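> agent: user asked for a holo structure of the chain below bound to LL5AMS7Z. Plan: (1) validate sequence alphabet, (2) canonicalize SMILES, (3) run complex prediction with ligand conditioning, (4) return tokens. Step 1... ok. Step 2... ok. Step 3 dispatched.
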Amino acid sequence: MAITLPQGVEILAPLNAEYETILTTEALAFVAKLHRKFEGTRRELIARRVLRQAELDAGRLPDFLPETAAVRAADWKIAPLPADLLDRRVEITGPVERKMMINALNSGAKSFMADFEDSNCPSWDNQISGQINVRDAYRKTISFTSPEGKQYALNDTIATLLLRPRGWHLMEKHITVDGDIVSGALFDFALSFFHNIHYLLENGRATYYYLPKMESHLEARLWNDVFVFAQNELSVAQGTIKATVLIETILAAFEMDEILYELREHSCGLNAGRWDYIFSCIKKFKNNKDFCLANRGAITMTVPFMRAYALLLLKTCHQRQAPAIGGMAALIPIKNDPVANEKALGGVKADKDRDAGDGYDGGWVAHPGLVPIAMESFNAVLGDAPNQIGKQRPDVNTAAADLLCFQPETPITEAGMKLNIDVGIQYLGSWISGNGCVPIHNLMEDAATAEISRAQIWQWIRSPKGVLEDGRKVTQELFAQFHGEVVADLKDKLGSRWTRQYEDAARMFAELTSSDDFVEFLTLPGYDYLD
Ligand SMILES: CC(=O)SCCNC(=O)CCNC(=O)[C@H](O)C(C)(C)COP(=O)(O)OP(=O)(O)OC[C@H]1O[C@@H](n2cnc3c(N)ncnc32)[C@H](O)[C@@H]1OP(=O)(O)O
Ligand SMILES: O=CC(=O)O
Ligand SMILES: [Mg+2]
């Protein structure tokens, strides 16, 4: 190892000369500072999630917080946005893989979310090469030659880069400070900020973030404190960092104003992260005997509780002069089936038309082939205007009961249950093999969508309402039977692609579903299979 480790820091993973350009002594010292200052609070907030779950399990329904009523009632706005964040009508997202990053930046989208989270498998190599790719992308030096000899380089006009670090729950087990492993969120943020902020500021840009999976405004306060501290440490003006918070937990939906308020100097809006949101609803109400959602495919953006959430997010953002960014339809282009492809593209178009028509300022796409479709939807509403933040929605009056109106409850079917098992195993098999985003049955699958698949079956087994359309109660035995059948089918279908990782995935999926202790995130036990 050529680098001198700062006092108290250890690296428990292989290094090479390139990795050492990211894991410099100074950068690691910065990671260590953030860890020593904020790790205690991070742990308290994670512990607070457990207490909150216990309250929900005891039957206390979430509501808008009485103690922050003054924040909701007061007239305040977020700080003005930098020029390169005014127009985000189409945002492409994707893992921090080198070729995909170049394709995303060149895709014609206004912005690109480089993802260390839902679509990324957090192996050591993915994390560190992701930081290398981000650094090179910011400097516009990123290039790539495929094994077939295809050359990739950046166009003259590229998307604005936002980076999504891991959530507060994930750790980076390969770095310890004073003997403790460090937070994945702090690690991803610290390295990206440390290596790039001064370069970007010299070029009239800055580091922008997406903040995932928060469950309360106190968690947003922690991010804000991290930003303030980091800016001070590196002598960067306060308010330089900007971040969009994903509202993707049911509890955060009750604290949207408060989250924007905590981050108001650093905010660039909210995003409707629909997949984790559905997962969060299932997770938080999994022990509530009245709660039971239908097959995953029936939970669309137009069902009552999703519609209420999407409109409340929009209204809240625009009241605070903040961008409202729509989430992602899981539909992707389908090769070799023009009819199915047209249907998928039509689905994306309808999704973006609805968001744009409602008043959203932009929306996510999963694939470069979807950029023109989303662009058309938002162009039709925005024209030459960069956004529609000025469009207020006084007509939207969302009550707690609207956010909690969990319909539809039917149908739950054998096909739906088997699809959940199939998707869950295939996704986990891919994730353990190092790829965090894959097409399965012509849909984009990532950590958030796979969470829905496994959480649904856990809940159907334990809910009195977990009954198949044909009258059979979902039980451990029925699950074991379907699991066996799906595994046999997958082995047949995947042939030599059914590797040890898929075997592990099938076992893990069964354990996650059978265990009465609901595992908070599948990426937590999944991480034990990496490196
Ligand atoms: C719940 C949430 O968090 S949503 C956000 C997280 N999810 C995402 O970001 C989705 C990212 N998308 C993807 O990873 C991919 O599009 C998939 C896995 C869904 C589909 O992948 P594939 O079927 O392999 O795509 P396909 O073969 O059509 O790709 C064609 C080309 O587009 C590129 N491409 C596809 N998706 C993306 C993307 N999101 N960003 C950049 N390039 C992309 C491919 O790299 C490929 O490039 P090439 O022709 O130069 O080799
Ligand atoms: O991160 C996005 C989501 O839908 O989950
Ligand atoms: Mg998510």
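> agent: step 4 complete. Summary for user: The first strand starts at residue 9 and ends at 11. The domain at 11-401 is CATH 3.20.20.360 (TIM Barrel).
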